[in-house]
Design brief:
With about 190 residues, the chain is an all-alpha fold. It has one domain. The protein is built from seven helices and no strands. Keywords: Membrane, Transmembrane, Transmembrane helix.
Length: about 190
């Protein structure tokens, strides 16, 4: 066996540059700009989610007045996390999720969804989320009420998704943002 010489850790470390483990060469000003950009994107997401949730709520309100949706489902959401079965508390939780969780998930996956625009990718996204909603918010409807619940809840989610994507698209054209992913062919 031939001796290859000294290979202690100090020798190897001195041969490597000091910034070998630096992932990004940023100044504190760049990092602060990143935080501002992330906050700005979060505000855009909250606005888009709030607009979408208002549209979804409008369609659910129609279903509620036709007897196809039961607002006690929101009370079940509040009870699920231990806040009693108050419908208003449940709706506030529901609205908060529509403003935060779903827009964040949409922005994370939208470039992989079918559709030529953000609005239509929002409809694709909403169709996927509807599959959870339709089961979780089901309150025993049957017959015509069940059919009305299924159709209205799907239309409500399409309204949410279309609005969510449209508002994101609106801001993408007007605000310097990190949202958008890879370019899509229209």
């Amino acid at each position: 066996m031939a001796d290859t010489g000294s290979t202690n850790v100090d020798d190897r470390a001195s041969d490597e540059s000091d910034d070998a483990f630096t992932l990004v060469d940023e100044s504190p000003t760049d990092a602060a700009g990143d935080l501002v950009g992330i906050f700005k994107d979060g505000v855009i997401g909250a606005i888009a989610g709030a607009a979408g949730t208002v549209m979804l709520s409008a369609v659910l309100f129609v279903a509620l007045n036709l007897g196809w949706f039961d607002s006690n489902a929101f009370g079940g959401l509040a009870a699920l996390i231990g806040l009693g079965s108050d419908n208003l508390v449940g709706y506030v939780i529901f609205f908060g999720g529509g403003m935060t969780t779903w827009p964040l998930l949409f922005v994370s996956v939208q470039e992989y969804l079918p559709g030529p625009t953000l609005a239509f990718r929002g409809v694709s996204f909403a169709t996927i989320t509807w599959t959870g909603f339709v089961g979780a918010f089901y309150t025993g409807q049957s017959g015509l009420a069940l059919a009305g619940y299924v159709v209205c809840s799907l239309v409500a989610h399409w309204a949410y998704g279309f609005t969510l994507g449209s508002v994101f698209a609106y801001f993408l054209e007007r605000v310097d943002t990190r949202i958008g992913g890879r370019p899509r062919v229209a």
